[in-house]
């Protein structure tokens, strides 16, 4: 059976910077629950699955309405394995069961403020364009040209050259640069299988605001997320 869009939520165990990251609570529910509910509420997603090797993560996902149709192979759940490899495995598993898709979307658990509309906007832009893939982006908080490093003598130097850090003083003079925010990745299945990545020869962006782009990767990020929620609740 051929369907339009598959959303895959990769969620392996073993996070070193934030143990149990996928099931820590934010706003009264595990992080993975946010991703499941956002994907299920998106109009442009036809099926949502969770890819994990961990029984506890799988149990929590199912408690929150997630579908866990298989257990991810251990070799795809190591520190060296990539989320893209997990998505490829999910596509192959479903193909073998007779289910294929036109578009595959990856939703990382660590972006809880993403909305169903962000998912729909990204997939809709991809479907309406001649692009092969799309990633959500956010503007840099500070121009990356502010980057500095140290030389062999331990002294600072401007990483991108003097013309940026030492000579430009007005932020308006810097180019408009964004970065991937990790919220939504989508690609045609044919392109994803060819490049084995959501970055292809023809990748578009779907820009999101900073307020929905927080990526929880370490304890400080988790504290920020919880503080933002408390501030919003206090303002009501």
Report a brief summary of the structure.
This protein is α/β, with parallel strands linked by helices and 236 residues long. The chain has helices at 31-41, 55-63, 83-96, 116-128, 162-165, 189-195, 219-235, and strands at 2-10, 25-26, 29-30, 47-51, 100-106, 133-139, 148-150, 156-158, 178-188, 203-207. The radius of gyration is 19 Å and the shape is globular.
Task: Explain the overall architecture.
The strands form three sheets. This protein has a six-stranded mixed β-sheet, sandwiched between helices. A two-stranded antiparallel sheet has the order 2-3. Strands 7-8 form a two-stranded antiparallel sheet. With 236 residues, the protein is of the alpha/beta class. Helix content is 32%, strand content 23%. It has helices at residues 31-41, 55-63, 83-96, 116-128, 162-165, 189-195, 219-235; strands at residues 2-10, 25-26, 29-30, 47-51, 100-106, 133-139, 148-150, 156-158, 178-188, 203-207. The chain folds into two domains: 2-139 and 177-235, Spore Coat Polysaccharide Biosynthesis Protein SpsA, Chain A; 141-176, no CATH class. The relative contact order is 0.18. The longest helix has 17 residues, at 219-235. It has seven helices and ten strands.
